[in-house]
Amino acid sequence: MADSRPRIGVLTFPGSNDDTDALLALDRVGAEAVGVWHQDDALPELAGVLVPGGFSYGDYLRCGAIARVAPVMEAVTRFAESGGLVLGICNGFQILCESGLLPGALRRNDSLRFVCRDATLVVAAASSPFLSRCSPGDPLIIPIKHGEGAYFAPPELVDELERHDQIALRYEAGANPNGSIGDIAGVSNRAGNVMGLMPHPEHAVNPLTGSDDGALVLGSFVDAARSSTLLAVRG
Amino acid sequence: MKVRVLVSPKQGILDPQGIAVRGSLEQLGFSVSDVRVGRLVDLDIETSDESQARQMAEAMCDKLLANSLIESYEIQVRQDG
Q1: Assembly ipTM
Q2: In CATH terms, is domain B2-78 a member of 3.40.50.300?
Q3: Which stretches of chain A sit within 8 Å of chain B by CB?
């Protein structure tokens, strides 16, 4: 409890490529970040899990579809079901949707182009452990880099997400980069302990590389992890 | 038993690949009102029972081969040979 540097696990799948940046960024914002291998069917005592971006299993079949059956994902599912904090970024968001830990799906960008640039986001959720350092309406500049980032959910599901404050982040109105329904850039599960987003907060934690707004998201995650109970998952 | 699974974007789901292919076909002088681009998966399932093969393929689609939120699938059981 109340560990000053809460331990957060960062998963690595074959094809993950933002795991190292995620480890460094979490360390920078005050976590003890540890790597977790995709073949592990157990999790050590952790206060949170980060599923990083990349191209797990070469994006074969559908982005995230193969990773979701990796042994570690069964442990992550149990971790999340016990109330553990889980954040998915980009491919990690796709994996969490494919796992059923988050609602909706991500499909090919409308433009069919891979987009790689800073995006302006607007905080949508009134209350989320991953956005506690922000207020609704706050603009955040965080880079995006994806080819399959168009969020999709049927209209009735989008209504439900809105009703339950599950829409975490939206792209700035008029600047939707991929065709996401409702300009949605990130969503949470109903309980709020799992969130996924296409933009990369781990690439925006140092003013040296432009915006450091990503530190607000990861810093909120670390704050929440600091006050949450450590959970281990046995194999 | 050989089973072919055809996965395609659900009706109503925007298929940017299909739109791009349709544009290219029109460039080549073909008139096509709609194009949808999907995925084909050939399976060799160890059973000689057709309905069992179909059931297994359906379970595979529901669990992995298709994402029911955005894709629909069709299963074709083919005679061996």
Answers
A1: 0.86
A2: no
A3: 61-62, 65, 69, 98, 104-105, 107-112, 152-154, 179
